[in-house]
Amino acid sequence: MRNARLAVIALVLSLVTSLQVRAKDKGFESQFLEITMGGIVMSPDVKPELRLHLANKSQRTLWVAVRFEPPAPNAACEQSHQIDTKQEGQFTCALESLVAEADHAATVKVFGDSGMTEQLETTSTSMRPKKKEVEAMQEWLEATRLPKTYESILLREDKVGLGTMMMGAFASGGGRLVVTPDGLEHVTKKKTVKVSAAQVRHVQVQSLGQGVNADWVVVDYEDAGTPKKLMLQGSVLKGGPAVLPRVQASLQAMLRRPGTTASSPGSVPGTAADASLQADIRATLQKLEAGTGSDCQLKLESAEASTPGRSKRYTDLSPESKKTIDDALQGDRMRFEIWRGTSCGVAVAYEVWLLRSPDGGTDVSATRLD
Cβ(281)–Cβ(363) under 8 Å? Predict the structure, then answer.
């Protein structure tokens, strides 16, 4: 067995979906696969999970089995997926507890047939999150558990003035910020500002000036159809700048609550998937969208049936893989759909493949259409 260690390279806060301890494929040795993403991912409404994205760099279809072995008290878990040439598979393992300074290992077995009897390769990889990284993840997750109250938070509406740009977080005017599942409220002695979660369209961090801390959390929202902005920052005079990532996390958690504009699930018209499968598809597409570097919530609006003739992904398959797909389609075990929506206000589309598995579930794979 060949061993390789995933090198933890950063803590990355995705403004929409998750906090990640990310890793890259440094030292990963495989004739058939390459790691496109690996690490620990956290979201406000799901358990932390180990995640490994493996891309098929060979010229044949592969069947890949991954066994995750996280440290106790977490349980080991296994997943297997078919990965067509030039495509990638996502493997995950839910974590009950975050453990620092311990190996989170994954053994990867590669097979040449669907019965997984023709073993081509076995390799492995692992990551070891540091104590500070685990503490940051736990702090971030705690910030997503609403309601949350923050003191000495500066608020500016629509624009940041010259004085604030020059003085940055030393500017006066801090107040109490309360974030709940229903919205945000900022209170000072002179003024109270309230914005409901349903009004909010986007939350991001922007650099708006100079000084000790030029970064502000910017909240885009609508008021009676008029686009508006709020800018939030912690006051240096009150030790506030360090609170900015937590404010950011709380606001994103607010957007993910059922009933808010950014995360209202509903039923996507046009799909044949039931509510449970739609939730799986949504999660898959949101993860793929986050992987493009987008910091926006994917808003899915419609779906439609598709065919292999419309699919470039199908066209690029080997004859063997095409036959497998054709057999599944003829046996009514597979369906192609196109899902459409917007991300950061830009129209996006995904080709979604739904394959009924022998155990009665449905495997979901998707590709973003350019």
Answer: no
